[in-house]
Amino acid sequence: MSKSRERALDHKCPNCGSKIIFVPGLGKWKCDNCKGEFDLETLKKFNNASSEENNKSEEIIEDINYIEYHCKNCGAEIIADENTASTFCVYCGNTAILKSKLSGKFAPSKIIPFKKTKDEALEAFKNISKGKPLTPKFFNKQENIEKISGVYIPFWLFSIESEGNINVHATRVHTWVSGNTEYTKTDTFNVNRDGKMKYERIPVDGSKRFNDDLMTSIEPFDYKEMVDYNHAYLSGFLAEKYDVSDKDSEIIAKKRADETTKKTLLDSVKGYTSTILKDSKITNNIENVEYVLLPVWMVNVKYNDKFYTYAMNAQSGEFIGDTPISKGKVVLFSILIFLAVALLIVLFTYLIYKGGA
Question: Which string of DSSP letters, residue by residue, matches 297-341?
Fold first, then answer.
């Protein structure tokens, strides 16, 4: 590795040489020592960040050193920038450290920088139990929060042209009365619909470790805010490399396109009393695939010796996660409901008896 490339990964403050990190919301890198703030162009000028040309060259990218963490507990693989000395597994909380070098194929083309801060993620977590009276009393207390981390999750974005044809059995029912007789006429139709549709950037999670349903729930991301990938954006955050290939992810992307195309065509069949889909044929052609990193805040909570994982879209602020139910509160609420019902029955009986007397 050349000297310039080593400097490119230092992420040092151009003013004082201290470590700098990317600050969500500010959209810049900040030095806690001298309070200096720097944009990407400034860092490039001082050789703290690689150029777009370097990022586009696989040969040079392979020369960039990262730190790879392989969790011996659950097997997750997580990467961070060179300044990270130690970390924890965001999935099980286990500490694991292993330095290695990543190959160029793991360098994404685009990235959405973090927009929501750590404090905003914590506040969203604390609000998750509002309106949920059965949540354990001390579940969202600070002492239960094991880890909160900003993680760049690998995604494949598929642009697909979809062409579909559906055959629908439809009926139209007309009812009228003549004299004392009611008549019903049912007309049946064989309805066909076909069309072409284009889908831009259908996202598919490229990590086996990250819960797919959880990731789908925090969509959508605004891809207009994507920028060219630069390793400097990893400063202060973790990033996981993909372990699901674009070919394997293609199956999921085509399925999403297939379902949307079919539904759109079916929704166009209107004016009938009933419709039944008889058969359909959907052909999907992938026009483009992009490998990108998307920002997610992950919160791990340990409660009663069990881990609960929550995710926040670090761009939009969408926060998702299931909270546990307190068995004690369930019993208490059941008793209160039983007493309330019993009281109403006694009161109702008393009023009836009083009225009869």
Answer: EEEEEEETTEEEEEEEETTT--EE-PPP--HHHHHHHHHHHHHHH
Neighbours of 24 (CB within 10 A): 21
254-310 pLDDT tens trace: 999 999 999 999 999 999 999 999 999 999 999 999 999 999 998 877 777 777 788
Q: Is the peptide bond before 220 cis (omega within 30 degrees of 0)?
A: yes
Angle CA 213–308–130, to nearest 5: 90
Q: Do the beta carbons of residue 31 and residue 244 sit within 8 Å? A: no
> Residue 305 has which token pair?
């010796």
Give 315's contacts (C-beta < 8 A, 6+ positions apart). Answer: 112, 114, 115, 116, 221, 222, 225, 294, 295
Which amino acid is located at 32 in the chain? Answer: D
Tell me the average pLDDT of the chain. Answer: 77
Read off the amino acid at residue 92. C
Tell me how far apart the 2 most distant CA atoms of the chain are, in Å: 101
> Burial, 3: exposed, middle or buried (Cβ in 10 Å; 0-12, 13-18, 19+)?
exposed
Instruction: Enter the pTM of the model.
Output: 0.70
* Type of residue numbered 102: L
Number of other CB atoms surrounding residue 94 within 10 Å = 13
Q: Which of 339, 295, 333, 338 is nearest to 317 (CA)?
A: 295
pLDDT at 157: 96
In sequence order, what are the residues at sequence separation of 6 or more whose Cβ sits closer than 8 angstroms to the Cβ of residue 342? none
